Every structure is written in structure tokens, then in C-alpha cells.
Amino acid sequence: MDTVNExxxxxxxxKAVGRKGEVKLLPGPDFWSKALNAGQLILHCxxxxxxxxxxxxxxxxxxxxxxxxxxxxxxxxxxxxxxCGLEIVVxxxxxxxxPDDVMPFQVMGMIVVLPDGERLGKVIDMLLGPSQxxxxxxxxxxxxxxxxxxEVVLSIDFDxxxxxxxxxxxxxxxxx
Length: 176
Fold this sequence. Notes:
Elongation Factor Tu (Ef-tu), domain 3, 176 residues, six-stranded antiparallel β-barrel
């Protein structure tokens, strides 16, 4: 397999389901359901073991997904995949298959600036909440929590790797 530049980890296979080769996927922070229809995915089963797979069909089950992967025909093959991660090469996706919301893999490492151009720091993590997500921004030893809402995050330039924010008074006084 060629070197992969930008991948998103969709989740981890946690168990085999039934006898026909289905598996249960526990979604990770970068999961979006349209990715399962996107064609080729990477099944990552160890440091050096990975292969291309295709999702033949899937269904939601609670907070997880039941997948039928191409080439996995029985329970023994499905059980061998427990613990494997499922990834997608984001750079090869068509625009319609990309996530609608900003995902952690998209903003990790981006530079965060204030409206006057002053650099606040770098995005090191993203907290996923039920009603809003927050960027964790680090500068030296300080960490800031920045709500990812239109009133605070003015723009995200994916090409330049820059997030522009306009924090309300007092937000940057809070430390993470």
C-alpha cells in the first residue's frame, strides 16, 4: 500500500456479529456515517498489517455500527478483525463524501489566531460534546478551551491551516 497522507480513524472493530462475517464498529471521534459509503477504506490491524476493504452494507445499532466488509465471509474471519482500526483516506474523497461538521482530524495542528492576527497557539485536541465541540489550543504551557461555534470561530482555512477566532471577554482567562 502506498503512503497515506491524510487519514481519519473512523473507529475500532470490537466484535464479530452473527455467523455471516459481520463486525461491530465502535465509532471514533473522526467518524461520520457517509464515510462508510465512500469506497475504499483501510483496515489497520497492527503496526505493519493493513489492507484495503469496502463496506458492502452497514446499519446503525445504538451508538455503534454493524458492518459487512468485502472479503469477510464467516465468523472466523470476522473474529480475526477484532481490535482492528478502520480508516479512510480523506484526500481521495469527493466533496459530497466529506464530513458536514468540522472533525478533529481536520483541525489538529492548525494555528489559531485572533482578529488582529496575533497567534494564540496550536490546536492539540478537540472535545466532542452533545451540543457543541470545543478546540483545545496550546501555547507554551497554557491550554485554552475554545467553543467551536460561529460566534467564536470566525473562519477555518484548511488550505493555510489557520483558525481565526474572536473570543468573548474573559474566555481566554479560562485555562484547560
